[in-house]
Amino acid sequence: MTGAQPRYLAWLVVLATLLTACVPAVGIDEALTGSPIPASTAPPAASDATLSPQQAAAPTATSVPTPSSVPSAPSVPSPASVPMPAPVPQVFALNLYQEGDFVPQYTFDWCVAASIQMAHNLIDDTGGGTWTDRAQQNDLWEMARARSSNSFNGANPFGWAKVLTEVGMGPYEVVSIAGYEDALQAAARAIAATGRPVGLVMWSGRHAWVMSGFESLGDPGQFPEFSVTGVHVLDPLFPHGSGQWGPSPAPNTLITPEQLATQFVVREPRRWSSDLPAGYLLVLPK
Length: 286
Hints:
Blueprint: H1 4-22, H2 28-33, H3 53-57, E1 91-95, H4 111-123, H5 134-146, H6 157-166, E2 172-177, H7 180-194, E3 198-202, E4 207-217, E5 227-234, E6 253-255, H8 257-260, E7 280-285
Antiparallel strand pairs: 1-4, 2-7, 3-4, 3-7, 4-5, 5-6
């Protein structure tokens, strides 16, 4: 009997092991309380709070702190504005002359009166009221002479300017400019600004021409400094000219400043008295 007892115990151990393998595992609390083991596993009952699919699927994660301020992208400086190139002076030309504007002086004394007639024709571009009459030229000369002082019985530039203004072509004024190139610039600038011709006091104060246009390097209205390269002139003494000063250019001839300078010279102060300083004399529209 003593040997049978150990065999009996070994058999019970084997039987217990087989029974353990065939019974589902239960929790410790269930084993202690003896609660029945459910026959099948059912899904847990839904709780009162319903989760969205995203919340149900999202794993639990530790929240990441949000930075208090997000640095903005560095500003990109705008490209510096490129300065426009300075305008380059171009060839410029202006001429008021039209066929029929020229009028000759009918005597050797009436150059101022003929120049007044030509100024009218240059300003009036309709062609319907051309001034060419000899009797009218005589009347204009008398008007200019009556408005001149110390004129050696003739008409000086002051009478010339006053008649131009009084008959409706003004205002005109007499100016004296010391420098030759400055005088040409003043004449060209006045023609461009007013659309009216300029009177040139020639032969040191003894004769009258009309400047009807010019050519230049640079538009006088755009460039304060420009150079006059050509001058359109009307000499009422054409075709006679002067043995001392030279021949008269044909009407509307474009001459160079060098050619003009042979007859357009500084006025002699003693020729007739005035408060104007010695210089190149212009009857200038303003």
